[in-house]
Task: inverse folding
């Protein structure tokens, strides 16, 4: 289908917000090219007129009453945060 | 000297009822067993005495004679939990550095149900990081070893749960199965593992891998224990909107020793090049056993089987890449320190916190969903998924259940497949289709190789027809007794 190389890994890692070392990028390019070559087998399957399956059960939207229910309190929600301040999760600067 | 650690849950219940022992006695026997053999097996990510045994006080103070009362169905039965299922205030890390130190502020629904049934939560079991793997080598802690040969893998990703049950370190366990993660390790460790129908068991509190495929299920020493545990965990849950509002039968009632007239399909596409001749022969003998007991076994065709691995590694990685976007160092787990900007913090946290297989799957999944490639990979895979599902719909018009090997080989050596991800992915070749089609499937022990490694048989049936699986598996088990063999440790 296409050539899977280092440039695509770098681009995809950026989309996934995940830093990779040069070594990881090189290895992933080779391994994923191999895996994608195997996956190309899918092209042999005739899917003309076939609907895609995203979910195996007949599923419908599930609504509930628009009522306030008990939920996590702020202290519990913040308990696992690497950094917090007051009632907030604390992160590095977002806007320059 | 008691052998309480060897007993099934049903046997333990009987011992309690007869006043021969108490939950404290059973727990003590298991803790001694763990102390002795856990250094060899390494089935646990977080040991019960360190993290969970202290929480067992409450159920232990209940009166034992109440254990038959509904709601105390598993009273005093120790159950180990895979480390991707949330247990309130206890370490739940998915065997990943990125979730280090995470203690969930709530219980998963299955945990709530276990507590209400009086079970003893008995440690968190090791796994492949985020359930990505078939060997338990992708844990951030250590690889778990197969109790039958500690130079070999226990299978994965629920390898810790399967190894702990096989090694008699715990009475029963919960695993999760996205492409075979309950059945393949159960097969390789010689125990029983069931992936229920998609939607049968609530996934609230299961840390998500691939949301259209994941199911929680039992890993047990025999088929009756699997029915016992399913009776507790199955059922609709409003907190998991994908859980099905379908009545749950009493699975214990389906444990009948009778397969007379049962129509069993044997798919020819599962007896392929690359299957170990010993595995092939064990399945053929098992089919013969069932035929002799009155089942009607005939060949069936599932023509789209050859595409299952390809479809799976597009759909599962695509869903994983979205599900794992939440691990960004903001709300829980590991955070890389020292960055001035948010984007750098997130990228370094993820680069540092995820292991090699998680990174591989995130990149593959992100790529399959990315602009320009979506139609060629993701959409195409979803369409072929329809073909795979149709194969089963057709087959179940003629057959009550289908029997295949669970895994093409017995347990392989530690390190054998780590440098070749594709060969590792292909070890799931027989288990993946059940997840893609959403149908239930169980692995039951059906023999041993010359090297004394367990072989598993997979039984699949229609959506929400776990009963036919229980009936077939129970009949086979009671007529063969493979499940009574124990590893020498």
Result:
């Amino acid at each position: 289908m296409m050539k899977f190389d280092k440039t695509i890994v770098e681009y995809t890692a950026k989309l996934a917000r995940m830093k990779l070392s040069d070594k990881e990028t090189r290895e992933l390019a080779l391994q994923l090219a191999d895996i994608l070559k195997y996956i190309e087998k899918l092209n042999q399957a005739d899917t003309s007129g076939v609907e895609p399956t995203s979910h195996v059960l007949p599923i419908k939207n599930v609504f509930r009453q628009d009522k306030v229910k008990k939920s996590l309190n702020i202290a519990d929600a913040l308990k696992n945060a690497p950094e917090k301040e007051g009632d907030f999760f604390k992160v590095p600067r977002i806007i320059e | 000297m008691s052998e309480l650690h060897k007993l099934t849950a049903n046997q333990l219940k009987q011992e309690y009822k007869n006043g021969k022992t108490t939950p404290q006695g059973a727990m003590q026997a298991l803790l001694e067993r763990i102390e002795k053999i856990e250094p060899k097996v390494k089935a646990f990510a977080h040991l019960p005495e360190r993290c969970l045994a202290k929480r067992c006080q409450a159920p232990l103070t209940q009166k034992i004679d109440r254990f038959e009362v509904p709601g105390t169905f598993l009273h005093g039965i120790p159950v180990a939990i895979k480390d991707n299922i949330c247990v309130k205030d206890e370490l739940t890390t998915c065997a990943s550095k990125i979730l280090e130190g995470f203690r969930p502020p709530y219980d998963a629904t299955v945990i709530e149900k276990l507590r209400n049934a009086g079970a003893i939560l008995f440690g968190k079991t090791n796994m492949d990081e985020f359930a990505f793997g078939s060997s338990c080598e992708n844990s951030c802690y250590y690889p778990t070893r197969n109790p039958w040969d500690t130079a070999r893998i226990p299978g994965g990703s629920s390898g810790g749960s399967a190894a702990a049950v096989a090694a008699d370190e715990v009475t029963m366990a919960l695993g999760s199965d996205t492409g075979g993660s309950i059945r393949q390790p159960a097969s390789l460790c010689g125990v029983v593992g069931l992936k229920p129908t998609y939607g049968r068991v609530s996934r609230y509190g299961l840390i998500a891998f691939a949301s259209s495929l994941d199911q929680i299920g039992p890993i047990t020493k025999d088929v009756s224990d699997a029915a016992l545990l399913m009776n507790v965990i199955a059922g609709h849950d409003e907190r998991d909107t994908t859980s099905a509002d379908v009545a749950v039968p009493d699975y214990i009632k389906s444990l009948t020793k009778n397969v007379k007239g049962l129509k069993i399909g044997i798919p020819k596409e599962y007896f392929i090049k690359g299957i170990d001749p010993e595995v092939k022969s064990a399945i053929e003998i098992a089919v013969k056993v069932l035929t002799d007991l009155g089942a009607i076994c005939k060949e069936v065709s599932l023509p789209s089987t050859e595409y299952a691995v390809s479809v799976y590694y597009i759909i599962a990685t695509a869903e994983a890449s979205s599900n794992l976007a939440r691990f960004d160092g903001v709300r829980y787990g590991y955070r890389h320190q020292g960055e001035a900007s948010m984007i750098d913090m997130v990228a370094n946290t993820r680069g540092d916190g995820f292991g090699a297989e998680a990174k591989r799957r995130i990149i593959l999944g992100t790529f399959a969903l990315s602009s320009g490639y979506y139609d060629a990979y993701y959409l195409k895979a979803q369409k072929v998924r329809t073909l795979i599902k149709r194969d089963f719909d057709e087959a179940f018009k003629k057959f009550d259940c289908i029997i295949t090997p669970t895994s093409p080989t017995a347990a392989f050596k530690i390190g054998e497949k780590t440098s070749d991800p594709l060969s590792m992915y292909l070890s799931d070749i027989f288990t993946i289709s059940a997840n893609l089609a959403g149908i239930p499937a169980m692995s039951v022990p059906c023999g041993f190789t010359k090297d004394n490694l367990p072989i598993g048989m997979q039984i699949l049936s229609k959506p929400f027809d776990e009963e036919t699986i229980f009936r077939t598996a129970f009949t086979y088990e009671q007529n063969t007794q493979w499940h009574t063999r124990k590893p020498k440790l």
